[in-house]
Amino acid sequence: MSLPRLSLPSQAESHAARGRTVPARDPATLLPSTRVLLKRREVAEVERELQNRREEIQQRMQRLAQRRQQLAQREQQRRDAVLRFDAFLKAVAARRERAQRRAGEERVRAAAERAEAARLQRELAGLLRDRERLARRLRSLRPFGDYLRDVLARMGQFQDVPAMLVHFGVLVWVRAALAREAEAGQERLAQGRARLQRYRQETSTELLDTKDKLARLHTRLEAACQDVLQWESCWTHIQSTATQKTLLLAQIKLAVLNLFQLATAQLRIPTDRAQEDTKAQLDMV
């Protein structure tokens, strides 16, 4: 809140406030001490006026502080009232929501009960239809019951109709089992014949392949025998040639040795060369 603007009163306003009139005098005609006194009096009056204004402003500030405090209290009271009202509205909304939820649950429960009642009604109608159908079937099967009782009376082997039906049921089951076993045996026999046929075909194919391989191996054996004869002949030729070459080499070495000995003997050169070093002997000759 803005404070009132403070303005200093003029000398005329001060005299008017005191309700006195001061005769206008020419300042030039006054003494200096008189002028000082006048100035001091004016200053004192201004200070008193300022003090009055300060007190008045302080009172106004106190009243404003009290007013602010009252306003703050009222604002707090208003906030509390708003909070209580919001809490009341929330409680009302929660009660309304719970009531709506209960009403919705009741509606769902009522709908479920109606659906269950309709289902039970349909189930009852279906059961009534089944009872009627079974009653018709029982009436249609009554001659067979009379026939079975007549058969039981003529046979005299069983105590009652259920025992006779159990016996014949076992016979039917055994017959069906034997039929299934015979069918399974026929199927296994067919599978065995098929496996035998495949084995024969595979064996025949393997026998033909083996004969072809044997013929190819026999051909390769004959070719290998021819190669062996050729290589044996070649090896014999190589051995004879090697023998001739060895004899010729020995003759050459002997001739070189003789030349070496003759040369060294005629020239009287010491024979420090080895007897087997034919190349050194040739170099010396």
Write up what this structure looks like.
- Mean pLDDT is 81; it is low at 1-24.
- α3 packs parallel to α4 (278-284).
- The protein has a domain at 245-270 and 277-283.
- The chain contains four helices and no strands.
- The protein starts with 10 loop residues before the first helix and ends with a helix.
- It has 285 residues and is an all-alpha fold.
- Residues 38-152 form the DUF4200 domain.
- Residues 36-74, 110-137 form a coiled coil.
- It comes from Falcunculus frontatus.
- This is CCD42 protein.
- Keywords: Coiled coil.
Task: Name the descriptors.
CCD42 protein, 285 residues, disordered N terminus, DUF4200
Task: Briefly characterize the structure.
The protein is mainly α.
Shape: flat
- Alpha-carbon distance between the termini? 147 Å
Q: Using only CA atoms, what is the Rg?
A: 75 Å
What is the residue-mean pLDDT, rounded to a whole number?
Answer: 81
Main beta-sheet strand count, sense and barrel state: none
Helix percent band: over 70%
| Helix-strand category | mainly alpha
Question: Count of DSSP E strands?
Answer: 0
**SSE order:** HHHH
Total helical elements: 4
Percent of residues in β-strands: under 5%
Pfam families: DUF4200
Protein name: CCD42 protein
Keywords: Coiled coil
GO cellular component, one term: cytoskeleton
Secondary structure layout plus pairing:
Blueprint: H1 11-18, H2 32-155, H3 161-267, H4 278-284
